[in-house]
Amino acid sequence: MPSSARGRVWHSIRIRSPVMMTGESRVRGTIRLKLETGLLPWSESGRVWAGPGANEVCSACDDTITTRQKLHEWEHDGSKIVMHLRCYELWTDERQQGQRQDGPTSG
Ligand SMILES: [Zn+2]
Asked: What is the tens place of the pLDDT at every residue in 41-71?
């Protein structure tokens, strides 16, 4: 039986962050996940209002929409959805791609 634990090796687990990944593909992944989990709607409803941000949290990328950025805002099922203009475009794109492959479970 070994009496001492000499030469022990500690591995620090390092999670490789995808540094090279562009912000757009990161946001796309987040949007796709939210679509699949129902956190984001598959369809637009009502009138979409576009304007400057007011330090609100983007429904798509979870980042703050600063007053220097543009946002899209609308109501869905009684709750307000706010997105960066950029995220809105990505969301629209992801919806079209997602629906073509595998539509949302309606019912
Ligand atoms: Zn965003």
From this structure: 998 878 999 999 999 999 999 999 999 999 9
Q: Which residues place a Cβ less than 5 A from the ion ligand 1?
A: 58, 60-61, 84, 87
Q: What is the pLDDT of residues 79-95, one digit of tens each?
A: 899 999 999 999 999 99
Q: Which domain holds residue 40?
A: 23-101
The total of structural domains in the chain comes to: 1
Smallest CA-to-CA distance from 83 within 73, 93, 92, 75 is with 73
Question: Please, are residues 85 and 50 in contact by the beta-carbon 8 Å criterion?
Answer: yes
9 CA → ligand 1 middle, Å:
42
Inside any domain, residue 49: yes
| Ligand 1 centroid, distance to 4 Cα (angstroms) | 54
